[in-house]
Amino acid sequence: MKRKRNDFINQPTFPGGLKAMRLFIQQNLVYPKAALDAKIQGKVYLKYVVDSKGDVIETKVIHGLGHGCDKEAIRIVKLFKFNVKQTRGLKLKHNKHIKIHFNLAQAGQQKAKSISQISYTTVTKESRKGGSQRSYDYKIEL
User: Per-residue pLDDT tens for 70-112?
Assistant: First the structure.
C-alpha cells in the first residue's frame, strides 16, 4: 500500500473548514476608526503558529496596511481555535499563512449592524397601587 505524501503530518483544521473561517473573520472583524477616517483598504498578510493544542501562539505581520489594521488582523487570528490530530504521538507546531481583507464597503455594512437599543420599565410595589413607573432607554454603539 502506497502512502500519500500529505498523510505523514496531520495538519490543523479550522472547525467547519475554510468557509467557516471566512465567516468567523467577517463576523468578528472590527474596522479600525483610523483606517476608516483615512479610507484605507487592502490586505494584511500574516504568518502564525498553531501549537499542539490548536491555539495560535505567535503571529507576525508580513505585509501590513497600518492605521490599526495590522493590530486588528493579529487580534482576529489569535481568536482562532484549530482541531489538531497528533502525528505519531509528537507535539508539533504548525506554521500557517493568511491574508485578511479590509474593505470599506464591508465596513459600512458592519457599522449599521453595531448599534443596539435596549429599553425596559421598572415597576415597584408602590407603582402597582397607582404610583409612577420608570422607563429607561439605552442606545449602545460600538
Answer: 999 999 999 999 998 887 778 889 999 999 999 988 776 655 4
| Alpha carbons 76 and 30: distance in angstroms, whole number | 9
For residues 59 and 22, membership in a common domain is answered with yes
pTM listed for this prediction: 0.69
C-alpha cell recorded at residue 57: 501562539
User: Nearest 10 degrees: CA dihedral of 66, 71, 76, 80?
Assistant: 120
Asked whether residue 108 is domain-assigned, the answer is no
Quote the longest CA-to-CA distance of the chain.
85
- Show the domain range for 118: 114-142
Q: Give CA separation, 13 vs 10, 45, 81, 82, 141, in Å.
A: 9, 19, 9, 5, 34
| Phi/psi of residue 95, nearest 5 degrees | -90, 130
| Residue 109 included in any domain | no
